[in-house]
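W.,

You were right to be curious about this one. When I first looked at the sequence I had no strong expectations either way, so I just let the prediction run and decided to look at it fresh. Below is the sequence, 83 residues in total, followed by the output.
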Amino acid sequence: MPRHIKITKAAKVFGEQLRRRRLELGLTQEEFAYRSGIDISFISRCERGVTQPSIGMLVQIAIALQTSGCKMMDDLEKKLLSK
């Protein structure tokens, strides 16, 4: 039987992963916003789990974080299903 995960929980976990990866790279939100081409206020809302990026934005985020959108989603799914 499939598990149902609330979207708000997914957004929060994604935000935590986004922030962790950004800090691993030593980037401030401002530097990350510049590299990704995404507004700093949107990045802040994503990191807090208030909003979620579109698929296009996910690709921009992944490139700026030197990873792939697929890896980010795979990590998110694993984290959500392990709880």
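Here's what jumped out at me. The chain is about 70% helix and 0% strand. And, maybe more interesting for your project: The mean pLDDT is 92.

Coffee later to discuss?

I.
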